[in-house]
Specification:
Chain lengths: ~220, ~675
């Protein structure tokens, strides 16, 4: 879900395009009742020298480079929106400008709160994030569903970048980890795998595969 | 083509003209303040007119000009401008008007006249053919040899004079009236609003109550009116009169409008609209009067220039207008201080800060000369600023110091560029308070004594000699190329249950390296600060080199070394270690060394190393910029230098070396212009 947000933000898109490699990690811990905790991490530390150099410039190739203040303000806006979202609590964020790592985490009462959050962000950033990804949890049958449609907005933004800037996405990855209290009986996404203790499902994919729709994040996870 | 465009085009063409320079030079008034000389003789020796014509044709310049003039123009010569003489642009500051004028030599007055748009009425003024702009603030007159262009800008300070206001019937800005009487107006409006409110409030309440009861009666009379409607009526009227709290609630309603509360706002809006209209009326009137004044003065000034009524300009001592064969333009300012004062909005500052006459503000800057030269493949702008005796004395003391020669050897041939600055910090600390006291004290005379006290206090507190030992004032900053260096980054490691831990990894990355050096005879303060850092575990001391790791993780660590009276600060551990062990054997950049040695200030960048740098850093460059980027590999240096004082003048030069492609730098620029035009 938060990955969608990251894509929707042109500012972050720019940093992505100008840094040679980065990681996005989405980690969700579910309780049996459907409540839980989500943590999203954007890690640009592998490209930190380049990001630091670029942030000294005002613009590169005609694209404005966001200042630290702008990035901080964007994150503050998101935190504010999250805090006002029904069913969302314990919102925390961090920005490490030494290593260029940003994190955002919060608790949610149920998956509806997560969906409400994406909807709110969609409105705020005038982009259809909620159209790309939704979550559902059937507590009685212990079935967790993630529906995902590739983001056309992200693809559009990506195509706007010059070829040289596109290639830097080659070394960028997205990782999603879902953890459950109960063991996972089965999951449907061929690119995802179940952990040894069967209580987590992980999917790691290249960002380019997501943009080009070669990887779909949709999954149905049935718990014991 | 309108006259302003014509004026602009003429100014451009000034750069393309040439005749017997001396005649035109004599027509310049003796008391001009600024003079720009365009030496087209030199220009066309550097670039052939044929080549200029070819380029301008490629850029459709003549086609566009022909279209707008309804005249066929195929080459520069068709414009009737004489291409064998110097042209001049000048300004003259009178009490009332700033005149801006130009003298353009003509080779063919008939051709030049054909260049005048057909619809323009040509007058004969002072015996010369003349055209005016619509507002008559620009005048162009011409005879067989010369086109005279003149415009004037009337000074606001002149218009503010009471006698001038009276003479021309100028009125006050209505906005001043508005703000001057603002409180009174606001009070009277408020009083009116209160009165209206009280009056209307009572009446309206009576009306509303009456209406409500009437409706209530109607309810009783007719069952067709529902209960809901009764509620609405009672809510919106009866609640209003219950309590003060309800009053607040009502302010959200439109109800207040009906009881006259909006009168205040409406009246203010109307007032502001009227004020705005009055302001625009005033502006139009004032502009019209300004136009009349300007045209009167322009005509009078032009007559004086044409008839030779003014004494001729005589180049003062130090005027560097007699250019070398490489100079294509020369600029001269009579007094930089005077220019400052003329363009500084003194009236506003004086009023805003309640300070005395700003005309006393003097930096000690006198005449300035600036030349624009084409020296083979190099374009350079070099000049000098003359200083008065006092200021020159101060500057000489400050810039009497050379760079520590021991630093030269640390400038490697492969460096991207460097910046060197040599000042005498003792002289700087000693004289700057005096300088501020002298010049800014005059700026605000009532605080003159305070400035004196401040300067003395500074002198007592700061021990210039002691500080100068710590930081002598000579600096060399070298930007070395990128080198591979190990950097740490954060990654994640997952166990079999997909729990992850944050781990620190390392990788080799290209990092720009720098080295900053400055001389110091007393390094105790640096040592003590670094030792403090060591105790706080922020700094590591290894083999006599201090390693600072937490200042900025992006560019690896910083290393500090103190050796041979020099403090070294850099981010390349190998280089610092080699300097420490006397094993650093750079390939010394001879030409750059000369530049450093000769100048008190020098900033030089090897432009040709940019493409390699971009490639090394793996910076994305768009295809559009590919050609231009690869061109950079053939450039020379971009530099700014100042040898400091020479006599009583402060010298400086800025230059860039273009690729040695064409005959000279101008040919390269022409080629670049064509290429850019083609890509667009």
């Amino acid at each position: 879900m938060l990955k969608r947000f990251f894509f929707s933000s042109v500012t972050i898109m720019l940093i992505f395009s100008l840094s040679s490699c980065f990681d996005i990690v989405e980690e969700i811990n579910f309780q049996s009742n459907g409540a839980g905790k989500i943590k999203a991490t954007l890690n640009l530390s592998k490209s930190k020298t380049k990001v630091a150099s670029l942030m000294l410039l005002d613009s590169v190739n005609g694209i404005k480079v966001p200042s630290k203040t702008t990035v901080q303000k964007e994150l503050n806006d998101i935190v504010l929106i999250l805090k006002q979202t029904k069913g969302v609590s314990n919102v925390n964020s961090s920005l490490d400008f030494n290593n260029y790592i940003a994190t955002l985490e919060c608790d949610f009462n149920n998956v509806a709160a997560l969906n409400a959050f994406t909807k709110t962000l969609s409105t705020k950033f005038k982009t259809n994030i909620s159209g790309y990804t939704t979550y559902a949890y059937d507590a009685s049958n212990k079935v967790f569903v993630r529906k995902y449609n590739a983001s056309q907005d992200a693809k559009k933004e990506f195509l706007k970048l010059k070829g040289e800037n596109q290639k830097v996405f080659n070394d960028a990855y997205f990782t999603s980890i879902y953890r459950f209290v109960d063991p996972v009986k089965k999951q449907q996404n061929s690119k995802a795998s179940i952990s040894a203790n069967r209580k987590a499902v992980m999917l790691k994919t290249g960002i380019l595969d997501l943009i080009n729709d070669n990887t779909n994040l949709s999954n149905t996870i049935v718990l014991n | 083509m309108n006259t302003k465009l014509l004026f602009a085009t003429l100014l451009f063409l000034i750069g393309l003209s040439q005749v017997s320079a001396q005649n035109h030079f004599k027509k310049l008034p003796a008391d001009i303040n600024f003079l720009a000389t365009f030496d087209t003789k030199n220009l066309f020796q550097l670039v052939d007119t044929k080549d200029i014509n070819t380029t301008l044709n490629k850029l459709d310049f003549f086609k566009k000009l022909s279209d707008s003039l309804s005249q066929d123009i195929y080459q520069i010569e068709d414009l009737g401008i004489n291409l064998i003489s110097k042209s001049y642009v000048f300004t003259r500051l009178a009490d009332s008007v700033t005149f801006i004028g130009a003298l353009i030599p003509l080779s063919d007055a008939k051709r030049f006249q054909a260049f005048i748009p057909g619809h323009k009425k040509v007058h004969v003024v002072d015996g010369l053919q003349t055209i005016y702009s619509v507002d008559r603030s620009i005048r162009i007159s011409w005879d067989e040899n010369t086109a005279y262009v003149l415009t004037g800008v009337v000074k606001d300070s002149y218009l503010a004079r009471e006698d001038v206001k009276e003479r021309y019937g100028l009125t006050e800005n209505p906005y001043y009236n508005y703000y001057d009487t603002d409180d009174a107006v606001a009070e009277s409006i408020e009083a009116a609003a209160d009165a209206a409110y009280e009056y209307d409030y009572v009446d309206t309440l009576v009306d509303i109550t009456d209406t409500a009861y009437a409706v209530f009666d109607d309810v009783a009379d007719s069952i067709s009116i529902g209960y809901d409607e009764y509620d609405v009526v009672s809510d919106s009227n009866l609640i209003m009169i219950d309590s003060y709290d309800d009053y607040d609630t009502i302010t959200d309603n439109d109800m207040l409008d009906s009881i006259g509360y909006s009168i205040y706002e409406n009246q203010e809006d109307i007032y502001q609209d009227e004020t705005s209209m009055a302001y625009y009326r005033w502006l139009a009137e004032t502009d019209s009067i300004k136009g009349v004044i300007a045209s009167e003065w322009v005509d009078a000034e032009m007559a004086n220039i044409i008839t030779g009524h003014y004494k001729s300009f005589v180049a003062p001592k130090g005027f560097a207008g007699k250019s070398s064969k490489n100079t294509v333009a020369h600029y001269w300012i009579r007094s930089v201080d005077e220019l400052y004062q003329n363009f500084m909005p003194t009236g506003i500052i004086e009023q805003a800060f309640g300070i005395g006459s700003l005309s006393k503000l003097k930096y000690g800057y006198e005449q300035a000369n600036l030349s624009f030269d084409v020296d083979k493949n190099k374009l350079k702008l070099h000049g000098a600023l003359d200083l008065d005796q006092e200021t020159a004395k101060i500057f000489k003391k400050i810039y009497d110091k050379k760079l520590n020669p021991k630093m030269y050897k640390y400038l490697d041939w492969d460096a991207l560029g460097f910046l060197s600055l040599s000042m005498n910090s003792e002289a700087y600390l000693k004289y700057i308070p005096q300088y501020i006291q002298r010049y800014y004290g005059a700026f605000v005379p009532q605080y003159q004594e305070a400035f004196t006290v401040g300067a003395t206090l500074f002198d007592i507190i700061v021990d210039e000699k002691a500080v100068a030992k710590v930081f002598k004032g000579d600096n060399l900053f070298v930007l070395n190329g990128v080198t591979k260096q190990e950097i740490t980054y954060t990654d994640y490691e997952y166990d079999e249950d997909y729990n992850y831990t944050q781990i620190e990894k390392t990788k080799m990355d290209e990092i720009p390296q720098f080295l900053w050096m400055f001389s110091s005879d007393d390094m105790r303060i640096f040592e003590q600060l670094l030792e403090l850092g060591v105790r706080q575990e922020e700094v590591l001391l290894e083999n006599g080199i201090y390693k600072i790791g937490k200042v900025s993780r992006q560019f690896s660590n910083f290393y500090v070394l103190m050796k041979d009276g020099i403090v070294f600060l850099g981010n390349d551990e190998n280089q610092i270690t080699a300097i420490k062990n006397n094993t650093y054997k750079p390939n010394v950049d001879g030409p750059s060394r000369k530049v450093m040695k000769k100048n008190r200030f020098a900033a030089l960048f090897h432009v040709n190393k940019i493409p390699t740098l971009i490639a090394d850093l793996d910076l994305p460059v768009s295809r559009d910029l590919d050609n231009l980027t690869s061109d950079l590999a053939q450039y020379g240096d971009f530099y700014m230098i100042s040898p400091g004082m020479k006599g009583n003048s402060f010298q400086g030069e800025l230059g860039i070396e273009f690729p040695k492609k064409g005959k000279n730098a101008l040919y390269f620029l022409i080629d670049l212009l064509e290429r850019v035009a083609v890509t667009r």
